[in-house]
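WARN retry 2 of 3 for item q-0093 after timeout on previous attempt; input resubmitted unchanged.
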Amino acid sequence: MTTRALMLAGGGVKVAFQAGVLQVWLDEAGLEFDIADGASGGCLNLAMWCQDMSGVEIAENWRTLEPLRGLDIHWLEIARLGYASSVFELDRWRENVFPDWGLDFDDIRDRGRDAVFNVYNFSRHRLETIPAADLTEDYLVASVSLPIWFPPVDIGGETYIDSVFSSDSNLIEAVHRGADELWVIWTVSREGRWRDGFVANYFQIIEAAANSRYAQDRARIEKNNRAIQAGREGEFGRPIEVREIAAEVPVHYLINLGQDRFAEAVNQGVSEARSWCEANDIELSSAASGPGASIVTAPVARLRFTEDMKGYAAQGARDFRDGFEAGRDAGAYLHAHMTIGVDDVHTFVTDPEHEAEISGWIRYEPVGQRLPIESGRFNLFLNRADPSEKRMLYRVFFRDGGGDPLTLLGYKEVRDDPGIDLWSDTSTLYTRILRGHVDGDPDDESIEASGIIRISLPDFMRQLTTFRVEAEGAGERLAAMARFGRLFLGNLWDVYARNVLSSGPF
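OK item q-0093 returned
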């Protein structure tokens, strides 16, 4: 009989993504785990799993987390400067967040789940695994007590801290406990890009410690498996399968004040876990619907704004810049007048797809004037493999003057290249006109024209006057506009201020 282990690795509050994966694995895929292991931030999710919360309940706890409820600056210690024990405390997590999440430590101990929580005993300089049957609030707090940021926890006269510098996913312990399959959810960054500054350095040290130890454990397991395949006994005496889902999550490990960031990270976990399950032939139930199948409700607020982008595109061109220049010479003017419609601001800002509808008209001299958009989709700041690179996508269906179907497909490339490029990145749309209504990737045969259109500064100033919010009451309208603004500015931070803090704090 195969023993399956749930490995909830650390990653600070990036483990909100992990909660989204749990929603899919536990509820939608119906996966069951015989044992479990948690380290660092993963211990928070493990505590909820040990209390027999569903995947949706775990995910909802992160979606609804109000960061200020847990913020507790250690003012008296900060005044001691170089002798301070920590920058923050975790008392408000004890007083507010744990009760908000419904954590009950008596219930956790009584459930009988075969799970361990990793903590580092600094007094004895050893990694310790605390069984769920012995978990206390002090041990859970110790499991996430990062030195400098939070004070160590005294338990029985000994000093305990976060296990991250020793292990951020204790694979070998799970193997020794009998696991044949290790199902790992990994959120520690593997970007490998060094940034200066105290905060960046600190968390890059954590990345070095966590990734190197994890790689060493994976190498031991792979060596064991190769030995067994060759007919030898191997270190563990049986083959061990590691099934990993990993992601670059655009939330800072610690410094985050935006509730929407947590909800978006959870929904990113849901989306990527569904794709992962499909790729691994794991069937999902009918509950797998929507960006997060969230039970969170929020006042409905609708938002609209209009942008005008103008430029040139040449028929037969494949290269965008060549098409722009040839189109300009030929007078092949292209003007897209598009109204972006967000039907629910709450869904829009927390869905990693950030999808909205497009209406309006297209003018392209070779095919017609003010051609109505039949339907269209807009995606704001889609993350690429590296969250510091994002794209805005436009896809609209319309028809030429003769009634033949066409598609305008465009993207804005948002990334921090040398020099000051924020304006050009967010105002330049690389555009193709395709024959037919094309819903997927185009092939060369479908490309009618290529070029570039841009928002001019005067048009951008007019665009700012087109923002409209529909909601009940001025307060709700203002709140919806603020949420959209935080999303926009926060994503710009992720790209252009990443050397200050790897992800925007809002």
